[in-house]
Amino acid sequence: MTLLNPGALWLLSLSAVVIVVYFLRRRARPVTVSALFLWQGVERRPRSALRLRWTRLLGLLLQLLALSALVVGLAQPALTFKAGGARSLILVLDASASLRATLSPQGPERFREAVEAARALLRAHPAAEVALVAASARPRVLVPPTRDRADVERALRAFAPTYEGDARPEALLSLVRSLAPDTAGQGREVALITDHPPAFDAAALGWTVVLMTPEGRGESKSPRNVAITRFAVRPQPDRNGYGLLLELWNSGPDALSARLNLFLDDRPFMTQAVELPPGATPLPLALTLTLTSNALSATRFRAELVLPEGAWDAWPEDNVRYAVPPLQRPWRGLWLGAPSPYVERFLRRAGLAEVRPLEPGLEPENEEGVDWVLVHKRPSPGAGPGPGRYLLLGSGLPPWVELGDPIGIEGPLRVRGDHPLLDGLDFASWRLLRAPGARVDPRGVVLLEAGGVPLLYLYEAPGLKIAYLGVDLERSNLWLTVDFPILLYRLLEWLAPRPTASAQLLVGEELPLSFFEIDPSNPAPPRLARPEGRTCRLSEPDCGRIDRPGFYAVIEGEGRGARAHVYAANPPPEESFQAAFTPPSQGPTGGQTGFPPTPPAGGASSERTALELEARRPLWREALLVGLLALIAELVYVERGLLPPIGRRRARLHVQRKRG
Question: What is the pTM of this model?
């Protein structure tokens, strides 16, 4: 027997206070009488407040017993005994998403069996100092090295795998070395509990690997997993729909009929029957969606694979996958010249561009972070600009575009050549009255002209792009036609393709907020809407953590001007394959495989288990329980009214029988 915290024994001095308070305590004893006047003649003897109460010492003894038991419990008594096993034990629990799968139709999730395997290793090493590590994309220490098995047990009860992938070997090994620098000897043991062989040579490191396999449970049936391993969404080139790419996988030995449901913004959109062939190769599935104008604004796509009733799936959670179109950052442009309500209204309402006027004294080429410069009815500068991208609306840019006097437009528009910019435009609906006479550099290409006057001209050279539209919007009906926003968007896209970034994330990754250059000092800080419905500010701790599959929306601004950037998070596709992986009963990973584990034997492990160590079994819980019971007994003894007055009841019954 030993005390882990002997300094707590000084609290036993409080017993003197308990004794003094007990003997100084006064308590009036109730007495039942038939009439008060019979007691008026009784001699009244004053009782001293310091009268010692020697007649009822049981209550005092119970109080002292309770205090002693509580103090001993705080001193952390432990029963010591000799035991084998390792001196230091590091339990590495695989916390990747595949541990959420099951090994059999009726069996529990793998991580519950992994916890039981960890408990078996704890029993095999009763004298070890234990550390608990969760191995996922971000490995972390659940319990630092401790001899308190209660802390380890609490962590095991609370353990649950993440939706992340496997830990990188270098990160996991570095974390383990920080807990036990020498893992190959001196009584140190590292046990990795996982459902697939590690990506590093565990045998060379002396690690024990416990694989959660059906063979280890005495079962021959391999897990079958059905999953959506890939889901991507891309806008169609004509901007009238989306292209969808999916990969479906069936690891079972037989083909399986299933149903694929597609949801747009949480609304059912399409259902399609699919036949999943067996094998290790995912089935690619490409879909093209032509959407109505109302559905073109959809930003959240969800694919769900529904299996026939009774079909066993090792991990049903990977039957759902999320996708969003690529994120597009608004163009950053400069505005030169006269204002145009038609162009400004289109760019502002469509949210396509953030346009600001050129600062005085600066030339367009001196501006940084600008995608293009829009020049509207501005007198031609004397010298040509430097490198850049320019959209000229009724403006010139010598020497490539030189303007003359306005000329009346007569005759039909003439299209020269076949260019994607003009695809689908209806020039017969255009009504143009006047356009400036322009001379253009012959090295460019004129796409549209009328009466020898160029109306649409493109020039491209290294570091320089120029798009010229010689239509006077105020003297034409172009801004009223459906061709105007299409043509304007295509010209801007030709000058500088709109910046895009992937919005597909894996659980455990960070939000790529730098793409939008979000200002944290904004008085209305950006918020994050999480899949579980909670909204938090990105400045709050752990707000931006991607810890579960679903949609994450970064919201900028307030009210009608708010903008949302939506991301889709999914588990790594490799976890779906590992959920159906059945490793061999014995592999080159070191240690033993299968479940339940047995105490390690052989090799370096035999040297560690041969050590005779001093194990400790904590007894503080028992001491605290004794103290609690003593307090309850003292309370019952003092407050005897809590107990049924059996003696009084019998006396009353005797009197009633006599009177009867």
Answer: 0.68
